[in-house]
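#lab-general

N.A. 3:47 PM
ok so I finally got the sequence cleaned up, no stray characters, all 143 residues accounted for. can someone with queue access submit it? mine expired

B.Y. 3:52 PM
send it over

N.A. 3:53 PM
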Amino acid sequence: MTKPINLYNFIFGKLDLIQPFMLLIARFYVAWVFFKAGLTKLRDWESTLLLFEYEYAVPVLNVEVAAYLATVGEIVLPILLVIGLFGRKAALGLFIVNYIAVISFEDMPAAALNEHILWGTLMILIAVWGAGKLSLDHFLKIK
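B.Y. 4:20 PM
back already:
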């Protein structure tokens, strides 16, 4: 019985070796998506404000405040995520931005919703596991 268990542990134990790289890829992917969105908002601020006023039904917040917070979040949090500094907090922050985007855009196509679900899942995994060994959090011993 120990031989199959040892073989299993040998094979699947090797997956631990790629975990830091998988977390790094997830961090870069999510950061890239949100950073691009933030740059798009900055490039055409007037259109951004119009979208927040007429297209997105952001709860509670003033249109300009919501647009500003979303843009800052989409610029700053991805940078933190890429370098792995305060990775859990950055992932949670982007998860919130993502969640608000989903609930604010009433006519979101199914394909776009699926992308948001993927991004949200990756951000939750990063928030739970941390940014990984290839991060400043790991080197600075930040949880």
